[in-house]
Amino acid sequence: MASEEELFASVDALLNEEPYLPPPAERARLREAAGITQARLAAALKTTTQSVKNWENGRSEPKSPRLDAYQRLLNGWAAKYPAQGAASAAAPAPAASGEPAASEVGTADAPQAPTVPAAGPARPATRPAAASRRPAPKNTAQPTVDPRFPHGPLAVLDGDGSAYGTGGIVLDCPATTVAELVEWTLRESGLGAAKLNRYGKDSDPLIVLTAAAAVKLGLPERLEGHEQRRSLRLPEDHPVVKQVLKAKWQLTQRGFGPWARIYRKAQGRERQCVQLAILSWDALDERSWPGVTEMEAADIARVLGVYATRVITPRGSTAVSGLELMTALRPPTKAVQDPATGNWVSGHNAGSLGTEPMDPAPPEATPEHPVVVNSGWSGGFLNEEAYQWVRSVDLLTDEECTLPFAVGLDLNTAFLAAAARLVVGLSAPDHFHTPKFNPKIPGSWLVDLSPIELDPRLPSPFTPDGARPAGPAWYQTHTVAYAQELGYNVQPIEAYLRRETGAYLDPWHDRLKNAYVDTLADLGVTKDLTDAEFLAAMERHKEVDPAMAAVLAAIKATVKGGIGKLRERPQGKKYKEGERWPALQRPTWRPDIRAAVISKARVNMHRKLRNMATMTGLYPLAVLSDCVVYPSPGQSPLDFLPYAASGKPQPGGFRLGPTPGLAKLEGVQSMLWAVGLMEQGYNPARHIKGGDAVLDEGE
User: In this structure, what is the dihedral angle of CA atoms 124, 125, 127, 128, given to the nearest 10 degrees?
Assistant: First the structure.
């Protein structure tokens, strides 16, 4: 006879068991008897329609606390709608593979992704969306749901099979291998995003793997090696790579790394491609996505979801995404009708960069480029880079040295502002000798700007280091046009110019500008603030919502990385000068467009510096990239910026505000001005954040 201790242990075991649910078909019968659709039930349980379908087909089971709520609901329905007879009480067999259960026919659900049997065994799958510790702010605009992609552009998969999507939804993912995950994503998840241009392509779904999810799928938690992170890949004989290939999927030339793209050749118009991002392999760089990898999975989904909605579904680093966004907004081809046959064929999309790569003119290339090495070019190169300039100590006045503060003004996405209405070349360069200068033609000009006399208290607008040119040099059109604006008679010696032109970056600028302004608004920084209110809002904006602050950082990194990647240099120790490197195969390898953006941004900066000197008599101490440092009587820009008697900012100089091109206080530069350090050659540019100093050429 069992002892009392054994009986109590058995009873405790029963009490600890998860709530009992009726068979899957009975769950569907009860729901239909109550006249409730799967979509309405999903809304009540704060889950997705696909999850309810899975529960009613026996593919997965809910998990507490959703399990307890579901059981309570079913028990209530069972009391109101008891089964009729023994036949009804018996659980019918599940639907055959690939066929809907009888209970699914005729329901009035919202649009759903195609339902197919999930690979792998059914399993408990979800953690409630409330795991996200910070709800989306009320003023964050909710995008219109595309019926083909009801669950948004991406999901973050955790180790327990919970796939956190946008808007707080949680999908149940039963996959236990990468191949199964790809199948589930394409057939059941309802993930993806609509194309950004009528001639473009829909964005492939993105699955972000936490460290636990990666290990569960057979991947190493970390991807270690002596090479740079961008070069790290799983070896070709790794079991996961072999498993993917055995399932007749393919990997891109990048292999299986932090950003792995798995695909099959498209059948008709349907793409079969899934993008993976592995968090523990440093897929999200801390500089571009500050603090994101330390967030909960639901919060990561929120950050990436907002970025995907406002910018693009991430496809790699922010530099890669910035470049991909250009192509997504200006697709290279469109459908055109062949006049001879009447058939629709692929044709060139006007205003795009086309489908074929284009070699630059020799002065626009880099020294290792084949057009330079193979031609023996020795005529010099464009040097259109951002400012890195410090005013000489000898040019500081006594009055400046007595001012107690140096204040940094950082221009909001200055390079994005420069891309607005920027006309660039779309065709190959043509060579001209002694051409007449035309400021409307994009290209590279060999001209001598050394005779131009400018105030030495300002950096030269013609060189990145602010030094006066020493003789003839190559310049982009905007730099030469500014020399003409300053009254110099420009006489080019030769030029490489492009006949076909267009504002290629305009849609890119517009989308990123809106993303930047909208995200700042979510952080409490809006256009209607006074300058004092704006500075106060910027001081605290990162603490308002760390998730949205991370989105803002990623948008800024997308701008600089995308522009930098237009001139991606060769990577790897094995590269030999004169060889073509992979980036040269892209139509978007366009160093001339990068030069045009930087040239315009630097000229814009100099124009503001000159206007400030005219209006206030103030001259900068240093300029680094898009940040300028001024001596000041106080810690705020309000202490030295020019204002009219009405209180409005004077036009032409630096103005505060959240719009790209306007300025904000860069807090790390608000520091006590020590005259003794200045006399020792103190360099204020060293106190400017180095991350903003260059246009990253990407990964």
Answer: -100
